[in-house]
Amino acid sequence: MLGSNKPGERYRTGIAAVGLAALVASALAGCGSGRTGGGEAAGLVIGTTDKIFALDPAAAYDQGSYVVETQTFQHLLNFAPGETTPKPDAAEKCEYTSPTVYTCTIKKGLKFANGNPLTAASVKYSFDRMLKINDPNGPASLLGNLDKTNIVNESTVAFTLKEPNDQTFPAILPTQAGPIIDEKSFPADKLATDDEVVKAKGYSGPYVITSYDKNKLVEYKANPDYQGILGKAKTDTVSAKYYASTDNLKLDIQNGNIDVAYRSLTPTDMESLKKNDKVTIHEGPGGELRYFVFNLNTQPGGSPDQKLAVRKAAASIVDRDALSTGVYKGMYQPAYSSIPQGYTGATEPFKEIYGAKPNKDQAAKFLADAGVTTPVEINLQYNPDHYGSTSSEEYAAIKSQLDASGLFKVNLQSTEWVTYQKERARDGYPVYQMGWFPDFPDPDDYLTPFFGPNNFLQNHFEVPAITAQLNAEKAEVNPDKRVAILKQVQYDLAKDHLSIIPLLSGKQIAVATKAVQGVKQTLDPSTKFRYTVLSK
């Protein structure tokens, strides 16, 4: 989840897999003033540099908004802390009642924070609205295998799927595509502003927002009516404080002015904090992927063959080890596939095909064979705030590597996240930075959202042969056969298509004062940062 990122008209096709995007992106469309209530941080205080882009689930597909959704919205199924298998949240039970129908029975007596009842009609409204709005930067693509949602009775809904026997659909319900909203609080065909979401309280999660100053301070109070898998909140009042710079975030956590720092301290900050005996650095499985993307329509090159040669040449020049050690001081590891190491079927085709070290001669041959004149001018765009302030150093290093080869001339530019997302969706960037945070732990989460039809990257990549492979691996129930397909599709993507260049992968990291309990419990493969388990 990108850093997830996701666009319009890119419904996820075929069988949704145990892993859909999450990271990386999100729209602000239609936000109001962004301030409701006010005051100083109270209770347990969590600091972050992540930004909220939208509170309406139909517009939000990014990590900053995902954290807010995790506290406030309920899902039919969700991941309990430390769990990787979805379990009933608002649902009492969910099961397949036919090969193409997944049926959920909702718990009796549920209600939203505003007092309105949560029923089957609420669930149908939530999913119908998500698909109808299909916001260019929202998570509708996760529901590509959903044909329709029907009300069976007041407490039962039936999801009819396009493809049968989709054993991964349950894992999509806990993602950003699955929040249940109050049908009386959200307009059916347009986005709600942040102010409208805060005031209407049309959500039923473990916390209620009591004060909202967008990307400055958000205050939460435990919802006494929440009945779900995340459990009753251990801390009644939680505040989230948003920082413009990591410098102030680091100072506040080391001085005890906040209780937890979650995303995104710099490598230098982390080295310093390791020496501080007043804080604890917590690590957990993350699956975060850093990479850059080529817009196949606007990238350099006069023909598809020339454009592919440019991408292959860049892949041959990038020095991931230098980024890992020189820029990130080992916080991230080199990534040679879109699937990070540790996931089922992960291989390293970029290392095999392009090498672990820069290879100028190979890059020059790719370009010469395709008739590409050098140096190739590349307009490379990155974001300085969403993926951490070290992005500036990271992309300066990438520019230096490409320029030093003599084969490229890189024009490096940066844009703040909200504008960045809008311009990216408008084909404004020929080559651009992205990051990914998985929706849930499965290798397909790094494939179909990136390379399937209408994918969230919005870079005009669609290859029927790749789509067929993706559909096959999602439907394959034999583990060995599925791994074989996963390996082949990774190799084919790296060798013949190469629409992205993976750079680095990393863990989840949070820093907390010694008094705080529960941080490690929430740093699990679901990437849901749950306030309910935190206490001091």
UniProtKB/TrEMBL annotation:
Keywords: Signal, Transport. It comes from the Bacteria. GO terms for cellular component: ATP-binding cassette (ABC) transporter complex; cell envelope; periplasmic space. One of its GO terms (molecular function) is peptide transmembrane transporter activity. GO terms for biological process: peptide transport. Belongs to the bacterial solute-binding protein 5 family. Residues 86-455 form the Solute-binding protein family domain. It comes from Nocardia panacis. This is Peptide ABC transporter substrate-binding protein. PROSITE patterns: PROKAR_LIPOPROTEIN (PS51257). It holds the Pfam family SBP_bac_5. It is found in: Cell envelope.
